Amino acid sequence: MLDEERLKILTESAKYDVSCSSSGSDRRNVGGTGNAAYGGICHSFTQDGRCISLMKILLSNKCVYNCLYCVNRRSNDVPRASATPDEICMLVMSFYKRNYIEGLFLSSAIEKSPDHTMELLLETVTRLRKLYGFNGYIHLKGIPGADSLLLERAANLVDRMSFNIELPSEKSLRLLAPQKSASAILTPMKEMAESRFAARAENNKKFLPAGQTTQMIVGASPEHDGRIIRLTEALYKKYSLKRVYFSSYVPTNTTTPLLPTTPVGLLREHRLYQADWLLRFYGFSAAEILDSDEDLDVNFDPKCGWALKHMENFPVEINTAPPEMLVRVPGIGFVTANKIVRARKFSSLDFNDLYKMRVVMKRAVHFITCNGKFCGQTRPAAVKNLLLLADRAQNAEQLSLFSSPEISTSALIGQF
Amino acid sequence: MLIYKCDGTAEGVSCCLYDSFVNKRVPEAVYSGSFQPSFDTEVVNIATDKAIAERVRRGIAKCGGIWLYSELFLPLRSYDGLRESVTFSVARRCLEERRSVVTDYTDANVLYHRDLCEKIRKEVHRIHGFLRFSECVGGLYAHFEPDNDIVDLVAPHFAERFPSEKFIIHDTKRNLLAVYDGKSLKTVVNDYPVTVYLSTEEENFRKLWKTYFSSVNIESRKNEKLQNNYLPRRYRKNMTEFE
Ligand code: SF4
Q1: Which DSSP category does A373 fall into?
Q2: Strand-pair category, A103-107 with A137-141
Q3: Chain A partners of B131 at a C-beta cutoff of 8 Å?
Q4: What is the DSSP letter of A209?
Q5: How far is it, in rounded angstroms, from Cα B182 to Cα B178?
Q6: What is the ipTM of this complex?
Q7: pTM strictly above 0.95
Q8: Edge-to-edge strand order for the sheet containing A160-162?
Q9: Which domains does chain A have, with CATH numbers?
């Protein structure tokens, strides 16, 4: 049985990984223990406001690599530990049964070699599925550079895999993670995407039902937001990733001059997630959001920023505009757009109706008409000023509400 | 001012609807519990009659299927004082217009109805995550104190997830138990104290879970406001990691 001491070490070394989501898989119970809910379930929230869904743990934090931004790097003096596959399995089963967790997020430092590490990870998930009859959610970290046969076998057992892209450019990767290469990360990501595609064509739903995700650290290297957003878009398009996570750089006892000494602000992470939302759900392209050498505006969310730059598209008529245009209006999100579309089938809507439906009128009013009536400002400079004022009060609140992407996600699309 | 008093169940409210159509009168409000009467209040007690309720149920199903029926009466599980009145008025409109009006958000009652439904659904979802089982002699046991009356909405998720376990989910606020015996689920009223005997391993796993919970937190990013938003304090007293 895993003791408290090692549990602590292996959890603390895993906690900077941001993806903890348990969504995207609707695994039915077919004997054994467990199933998976498509929308994911949060089981608890830690003091930092992050959701606990999966038990996030490393099989080992004894690393032969030396990625400068990582707590587990070889040169860092931290307590080291490892667990056996069986110890992990037993802990998962007992936590799951008590409804502490939704499943397992298993990762590992590179112990000895990528193949050796991947073999242990594979053994753990194989045991968990086959021996312990666990049918809940598993997210497995893929080890770049491991034999592709091992990776394929794992992909047939788990719900989701992720190869972390780590940093937004190859140059930064070379500088900060000298033993990793972009191709070692992207190649398996590509192979997995192709295999999944082929499996789907043969109606095999067991191959990574919840797809792949990745994560990159923001604020450890100098790339602009525009570049990050473009890379994100490319990852969605090329490798059909389900999700790109941004992890704000948190200094972990480093002395190297290559890394900043202060953590990146939450606001930047927040804005990046908002931009990511626009890519995934609102039909925006990276190029529409900003140029590659630009950073996201701290004063306005990216949707608002776009609207201000494209006043020629507005105002839109609430009673006739198509849903995809409604959601582009600042102050109208998915839930409200949905309400509008449903309600206008009954009768035509006026400003008062919108207000009751919780459209954020202070923001929306400059971009909409109701039965031809317009109540906002048209001069971009005036609109900008009013929005700044409207947002100032709200911003602090909104920021705290949105900084956990998983939940803001569900809040925005109206599923819990 | 006309007020209907009923037992607050779907059947009770259905009988109010029936009375309203038959006697061609529309109440100002519908209550099951106590309320503040004014000098011109006229209270009509509506008795629950299963046969009448069934006719109303079929009438509603004609307006939008059986889905509409369960959606319309969902707010009755809420603790909100206006639950019966809102349910009544939205259901009355459906029957009158012979169609579903639950998405006509220009109607303030419909919006209120929707908000109550969302709150209930949200709580069910939250509880799916926040419920904590203890391993006891004879099966799993969990207690909770939901805002809304939802123990029977919460339990099926766990029956599906742990089909071969036996478990009891205990709403200690309403003295209701959802009991799963490994085959089927039932809800029972229980007015007696419940005693459970923890398995020998239980304490150890609770300790490990607490260790996990505190280790996964990032101290430098402390944000209790956010934590409170997602996990309101009232739920914590039934959760292992906050003991
Ligand atoms: S490979 Fe790099 S990022 Fe991964 S645990 Fe080792 S040092 Fe950390």
Answers
A1: B
A2: parallel
A3: 99
A4: T
A5: 12
A6: 0.93
A7: no
A8: A54-58, A103-107, A137-141, A160-162, A212-218, A243-248
A9: 4-289 (3.20.20.70), 302-412 (no CATH)
